[in-house]
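[step 3/7] inverse_fold.run input=structure_tokens len=105
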């Protein structure tokens, strides 16, 4: 599956199939959340949350790819991510883009 964050493929013919999307809501366990709260007192990167968001992006992208494949796509254009905080230690990440079928491939 070709995934790009541009809005068209120069030199390629393709059919637009629709929106492909995938989302996930993840949270850290209480222990890591407590340690992360302590980290805010001294500053610096909160690696537990960096890992949480990296994992969430990977899951959301995988679900987006499955959605695109279900539509018959072999590529996704204009990949985007969005995130929101649902509660203090839970985050939603959504991956979305345009599902396309490249003609002749």
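[step 3/7] decode complete -> sequence:
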């Amino acid at each position: 599956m070709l995934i790009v964050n541009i809005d068209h493929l120069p030199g390629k013919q393709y059919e637009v199939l629709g929106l492909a999307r995938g989302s996930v809501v993840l949270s850290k366990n209480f222990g890591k959340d407590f340690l992360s709260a302590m980290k805010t007192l001294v500053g610096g990167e909160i690696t537990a949350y960096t890992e949480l968001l990296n994992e969430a992006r990977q899951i959301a992208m995988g679900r987006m790819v499955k959605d695109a494949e279900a539509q018959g796509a072999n590529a996704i254009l204009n990949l985007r991510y969005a995130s929101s905080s649902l509660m203090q230690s839970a985050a939603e990440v959504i991956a979305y883009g345009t599902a396309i079928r490249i003609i002749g491939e």
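[step 4/7] annotate
The domain at 2-102 is CATH 3.30.110.70 (Translation Initiation Factor IF3).
The chain is about 35% helix and 40% strand.
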